[in-house]
Design brief:
This protein has about 575 residues and is an alpha/beta fold. About 45% of the residues lie in helices and about 15% in strands. The chain binds 2'-deoxyguanosine-5'-triphosphate, calcium ion (CA) (2 copies) and zinc ion.
């Protein structure tokens, strides 16, 4: 299995992660070199696999040792340095870095001094109060780590893979499978197809002439660590990160029934089978069949199976048995987002963490059909934030660009304010009032108690400059739980002040979460789908936000992005 650009990116990310542990320093020379190499590879538009070491080294950001490693990966299929690091720092140790408050130095010391090799060990030594007497830790950090573990457990993502990791991985596996000769169709199903936030395992279905080649390919995938089982129709492998991949080869005539079965959810399937039985039919992963005659009624496509059961096709991300079958029956499924005409949360290189220029961002948004675009750099209160002079200068550039754009697009100047621990905002009221649009979001102080946390957001909402709250819960799926909020109080303040709530489409966030949108969907609140793009390639993340809204059955007219451009622009400028 030939390695590709994505495998090089994986290699550098893993190298940097393991080197952080090795050296106990997240910003060492080597770590920065790997990260810079990854960025350079990512930005390279040509075929990276054919470049010689010298050509690689000539690319900005790639040094001699990184160039050698890229070649080593392409030429030999593995990289010795990485193999060595993997032996010293197994995945269970790397996973400890996800515990808020636990850095690489601390992980190494806990390992050496208390024998902590995984999450369970950590839980145990904290329970046994072994940290309070350890030099450099103490009571306070023991309490803090206990609290972190508690919040992680509450989040219930232990052992599951965040969608931000699973989806790009699945797309790569899918592309590889589709390239196997004789493969007619292939798709991922399971929780990923339902757009769940975390994924237990990946499930693929393949319609192919020759299963052998498909199975060989799956087993040969570069991220595969272990083969759990191989058969004629099903193969299971485990990636180095501990993610299981199940691949099933099915007959093309049965693909629809199989897709339905393996997409689930289980609860949705149970209802559908009951529905079949009530009509004298059986539904399984092969077909919908007449019980009396054994005759196949439908199997090839999902649409046919749903239709034979008297239903319109139900989009996968709605199949959670939260009432979607009953609505489908009355032809009243919640509407899908028909179009996304605005993006109100976008960064450019002016932000410390932005990667695309203003010009490129505007051009890419235009090409996507965006009619109202608001540029929102980080304000000075965040690490990547900028001073007012820079923003004043940007405003002039934006005004000039707007003149050139004419009627084709409304380009507005906004800013992403940081909400301080007591709801304080960046700059001063007068400067804030000078923007077309201000959104405000939380970037720190995640541990405040519910009342203070809620009050902080409500205070920001009451500020006349704030039009929208960005990524309300500030969670990072699988890494940081959302802050503790009284959502009813937030919804009430949103109604009272007319402040919109963002649905941030960045896969690591997906914030608001589906359950929060569900709770707020009947309220008189404006919701906005945002990309929070830091690169032109991330503008399509508004589609993820749309999936969240759809999964929560948010009425389409409450989604600001779908409105007519004139109404949209007027709304943003208010
Ligand atoms: P996950 O992997 O935990 O994120 O969640 P799923 O939904 O992908 O679950 P998984 O991988 O165990 O199974 C994939 C789909 O296959 C599941 O959504 C529905 C179907 N399925 C699996 N086992 C059963 C079962 O025992 N009964 C029924 N009705 N469906 C099943
Ligand atoms: Ca699964
Ligand atoms: Ca599975
Ligand atoms: Zn942002």
């Amino acid at each position: 299995m030939a390695n590709t650009k994505a495998d090089v990116l994986d290699m550098f990310h893993e190298l940097s992660e393991l080197t952080i542990l090795e050296e106990g320093d997240p910003a060492s020379f080597r770590v920065r070199a790997y990260e810079s190499a990854a960025r350079a590879v990512d930005a390279y538009a040509g075929d990276i696999t054919v470049l010689t070491a010298a050509k690689l080294q000539a690319l900005e950001g790639i040094g001699k040792s990184s160039a050698a490693k890229i070649r080593e990966l392409f030429d030999t299929g593995k990289v010795q340095k990485l193999e060595d690091l993997r032996k010293k720092h197994p995945p269970a140790i790397v996973a400890l870095l996800n515990v808020p408050g636990l850095g690489p130095k601390a992980v190494n010391r806990l390992r050496k001094e208390l024998g902590v090799e995984n999450m369970d060990d950590l839980r145990r030594v904290i329970g046994e109060h072994k940290l309070r007497d350890l030099k450099g830790f103490g009571q306070k950090s023991e309490d803090k780590l206990a609290h972190s573990l508690e919040r992680m457990a509450k989040q219930g993502t232990h052992g599951r893979t965040p969608i931000s990791v699973a989806l790009p991985l699945a797309e790569r596996v899918l592309a590889t499978i589709k390239a196997v000769p004789g493969v007619r169709q292939a798709a991922y199903c399971g929780s990923l197809r339902r757009f769940s936030e975390t994924i237990g395992d990946l499930d693929f279905l393949v319609a192919a002439d020759d299963a052998t080649q498909v199975m060989d390919t799956v087993i040969g995938l570069p991220m595969v660590d272990q083969v759990l089982g191989r058969g004629d129709t099903k193969t299971s492998v485990l990636t180095r990160r501990g993610l299981q991949i199940d691949v099933r080869v099915v007959k093309e005539e049965e693909l629809g029934a199989a897709l339905m079965y393996f997409t689930g959810s289980k609860a949705h399937n149970v209802k559908m089978r009951q529905r079949a039985l009530a009509r004298g039919l059986t539904l399984n992963e092969y077909a919908l069949t007449e019980i009396a005659t054994g005759k196949v009624v439908a199997a090839k496509t999902e649409e046919e199976v749903y239709a034979a059961l008297g239903l319109p096709w139900i989009p996968p991300h709605l199949r959670e048995d939260t009432g979607e079958i009953e609505l489908a029956e009355q032809n009243a499924l919640p509407g899908l987002v028909p179009r996304i005409l605005g993006d109100f949360h976008v960064h450019t290189t002016v932000s410390g963490d932005g990667k695309s220029s203003l010009e490129d961002t505007v051009a890419a948004a235009r090409a996507r059909g965006v009619k109202v675009l608001v540029i929102t750099e980080h304000a000075e209160g965040t690490v990547s934030g900028v001073k007012r002079e820079v923003l004043v200068e940007q405003r002039a550039r934006i005004e000039a660009m707007q003149r050139e754009l004419g009627d084709s697009m409304v380009l507005l100047h906004g800013v992403e304010l940081n909400i301080g621990p007591a709801g304080e905002l960046d700059y001063d009221a007068e400067f804030r009032a000078g923007f077309d649009f201000c959104l405000a979001s939380i970037h720190d102080h995640f541990d405040l108690p519910r009342e203070a946390q809620t009050q902080r957001v409500v205070t920001a909402m009451r500020d006349p400059s704030v039009r929208m709250i960005g990524h309300l819960t500030a969670r990072m799926i699988g890494a940081r739980p959302g802050v503790d909020l009284d959502f009813e109080a937030i919804f009430a303040a949103a109604e009272e002040t007319g402040t919109a709530l963002e649905i941030n489409g960045g896969l690591p966030r997906l914030d608001l979460p589906v359950d929060v949108v569900r709770r707020g969907r009947e309220r008189n609140i404006d919701f906005v789908l945002s990309s929070d793009a830091h690169h032109t390639s991330e503008l399509d993340r508004v589609e993820n936000a749309a999936k969240v809204a759809e999964k929560a059955w948010l009425p389409v007219d409450k989604i600001v992005n779908t409105w007519e451009p004139e109404r949209l622009a007027a709304w943003a400028r208010r």
